[in-house]
Amino acid sequence: MVSKRPIRVLIAKPGLDGHDKGAKIVSRGLRDAGMEVIYTGIRQSVDVILETAVQEAVDVIGLSILSGSHLSICRELTEKMQQRDIRDKQVLVGGIIPKRDVGPLKEMGIAEVFRPSSTVNDIVQFHREAI
Amino acid sequence: MDSEWKETNTGVKVKLFYTPEDVTGFDHEASLGAPGSPPYTRGIYPSMYRGRLWTMRQYSGFSTSENTNSRFKFLIDQGQTGLSLALDLPTQLGLDSDDDLAKDDVGKLGVAIDTLKDMEEMFEGIPLDKISTSFTINATASIILAMYIATAQKKGIDPGKLRGTIQNDIIKEYIARGTYIFPPEPSIRLIGDTIEYCIEHIPKFNTVSVSGTHICECGATPAQGVAYPFLTGITYLEEVLNRGYNIDDIAPLLSFHLICGGVQFNFFQEIAKLRAARRLWAKIIQKRFKTGNKKSMRLRFSTGGMGGGMTEQQPLNNISRISFYALAAALAGSQSMNLPCFDEAYAIPTDEAIRTSLRIQQIIGHEIGVPDVVDPLGGSYYVESLTDFYEKEISKEMERIEALGGILRCVDDGTIQSKLADQAYQVQQKLDSGEMVKVGVNRFQIDEEDRELEFFEVDPKTRSMQIEKLERFKSERNPEKLAGALGALKKAADAKENLMPYILEAVKSDATVGEIVGEMKAIYGEAKQMSIF
Fold first, then answer.
1. What angle do CA B91, B116, B211 make, to 5 degrees?
2. Which of A21, B330, B417, B487 sits between 20 and 30 A of B77, alpha carbons compared?
């Protein structure tokens, strides 16, 4: 029997915002669901996040952004992933993100956007089904 | 009978109804006292809201100082009686707008302040001697205060007349909010410097607003949301006592910012908690610091935060929630209110959303008779019994932390952060499972049409406008004067002198926030990060 290795997830807080209750709750929820989770801590640059994701060989990069800076941060991350030809990782974003930004985020290559009404279970389910 | 007990949404066991037997230790004089008299359970002023209503502020500030100036004037026109300024994250972290680390955050969650000129523009046409301003600023509080003082001086206003508050509470930044820069020891010394400076020069200014709101948003229980700020406040008091001041010089300058609402809101419990906080603080000051000075024993607090209680679903329901938070705060005798806005789960509030929150305060204050009688719930068997309960709970939590080595130790080793993360996770699980009811979220949901609220967006050109301003400003400075002021500041930091006069001089010599923080970082280093979950 082939045992599937657990999904590895990097939860990251880009930008300067320090409110990371949500990031920690999601980290805990994914860990409780059997995934391997690394949390970067606050105030991480896109470069550091990407480097950590590569080093740690994660399957998913989950960004927590509450500050309204999601479009510029996600653009930077997805562009740098393209430049480095990183294709084995999916990027998810959660936070205070208006509905109308979901389309543009997905066009950039963000796999899913979890808005304020998402539950921890929604996020876990997505990982189980799509990763 | 066991069946008469019920656990509330916040996990407190309550009876079906309360009788005199539930308040057997109740003594009118000792438990309550008259309003304006120790132990201040009923409120800290004899006439409370009949004399003067709470200060009505709504948190605002965004983009550039000119834009924020317009919003301030709008709010003053709408009858707001104080200002509450939001500063952007780079300013809070001591990064100038042209810093690469700041690139995504300039002017987003508050106004960008790099220089004294920005501060002057923000208060253009606003009478600083007549309006009080509250600044949500912590790690860089000393610099922002210095800029405010310098702005007043330039306008010919005696800084001694300035009224307002700087949050200036670094301990909760390590616990919950994240805008710390330096390690705890120099950070607390810096808070001591600002307190000392204010005692000597601007006595009407609240130099510290010790905050429970952020740690409650981050998972603290109502009792922890008072216990941790109290331990923090004691830490700051001791810092200044060690400099040879008397408790009665310092304690009256301390104010608190406590939550009244949010995720773990229970109407009566929140009121009881705040009444208990006043009574307990009076006792702590009296016993621990051996003073009977009434001004020292008074617990002054504003209520605010609570954005975590707002829902994205059926957003107009939030207006009702905000009204109950505000009513509880008024019944609890808050000195100032800063309410969330109904569009909080969407973006930075619109003018309409801010105005609606201000109107809630005005309706409670002017329309429905709430302020007519002081502490109207005083004497209720239930509320008095809960007040006793919270006084004990807060004390117990304070003792627990002190037994573990004190608040600084428990922050440094992450004890508090990991406890809050646990609790936040548990609450989220209860919300996700529906065990904790949230109307419109896990009960009484509707299929909402796919519409968006109209929401506020910061001008995308803010950063480039701000950088252009900054460059122009830098090109017009006197480099020798600047270098002299920054050099003196660095030396003073190294010698552990009170930095306030040096920061004031640096600001007047046109140093930027980033430059001042740069000198301090060179001496102090930076705080370590924690990522416990």
1. 40
2. B330
Q: List residues in chain A touching B: CB distance below 8 A.
A: 14-21, 23-25, 27-29, 31, 37, 39-43, 45, 67-69, 72-73, 96, 98-100, 115-117, 119-121
Q: Is residue A65 part of a domain?
A: yes
- Assigned domain for A2 exists: no
* A54 part of a folded domain: yes
Structural domains counted in chain A = 1
Sequence-distant (6+) residues with CB within 8 A of B359 are none
In this prediction, residue A120 carries a pLDDT of: 95
- A21 vs B101, B217, B311: nearest CB: B217
A50 C-beta neighbours (distance < 10 Å), count: 21
pLDDT at B371 over 60: yes
Residue A1 has pLDDT above 50, yes or no: no
- List the single residue in A15, A39, A99 with the smallest CB-CB distance to B104: A15
- As assigned by CATH, the class of the B53-375 domain is alpha beta
| CA A91 and chain centroid, separation | 5
B169 touches chain A (CB under 8 A): no
Asked whether the CA dihedral B472, B478, B483, B488 is positive or negative, the reply is negative
For residue A116, give the CATH number of its domain: 3.40.50.280
Task: Provide CB contacts within 8 A for B466, sequence distance 6+.
Answer: B64, B97, B106, B107, B112, B114
For residues B454-473, give the mean pLDDT.
Answer: 88
- According to DSSP, the β-strands at B336-338 and B55-57 are parallel
Segments in B202-246 forming alpha helices (H):
213-217, 224-241
Closest Cα in chain A to B429 = A120
Instruction: Please indicate if any CB of chain A lies within 8 Å of the CB of B90.
Output: yes
Residues of chain B with CATH 3.20.20.240: 53-375
Mean pLDDT over B449-477 rounds to 85
Q: If residue B67 lies in a helix (H) or strand (E), which one and from where to where?
A: helix B65-77
> Residue B316: phi, psi to the nearest 5?
-70, -20
Give CA–CA dist B130/B336, Å, rounded: 17
Please state, in angstroms and rounded to a whole number, the distance separating the CA atoms of residues B478 and A68. Answer: 37
Which amino acid is present at B418? S
- How far does the CA of residue A3 sit from the closest CA of chain B (Å)? 27
Q: How many CB pairs under 8 A join A and B?
A: 104
Q: Among the listed ranges B83-92, B290-299, B326-335, B447-456, which one has the minimum average pLDDT value?
A: B447-456
Domain that holds residue A39: 8-130
Q: Rounded mean pLDDT of chain B?
A: 94
A71 vs chain B: nearest CA distance in angstroms? 9
**B145 CA to centre of own chain:** 16
Contact A98 B103 (CB under 8 A): no
What's the CA gap between B210 and B84, in Å, rounded?
16
Cis peptide before B39 (omega within 30 of 0): yes
DSSP classification of residue B439: B
Residue B64, pLDDT > 90, answer: no
pLDDT for the residue B450:
62
Q: Do B377 and B54 touch, CB atoms closer than 8 A?
A: no
Q: How far is A1 from chain B (nearest CA, A)?
A: 33
Q: In chain A, how many H helices and how many E strands?
A: 5, 5
Q: Per-residue pLDDT tens for B385-441?
A: 999 999 999 999 999 999 999 999 999 999 999 999 999 999 999 999 999 999 999
Helix (H, G, I), strand (E, B) or coil at B301: strand
Most B-contacting residue of A13, A25, A100 (CB-CB within 10 A), to test interface: A25
User: Which residue, among A9, A10, A11, A19, would best test binding to B if mutated, counting the most B CBs under 10 Å from its CB?
Assistant: A19
Mean pLDDT, rounded, of chain A: 94
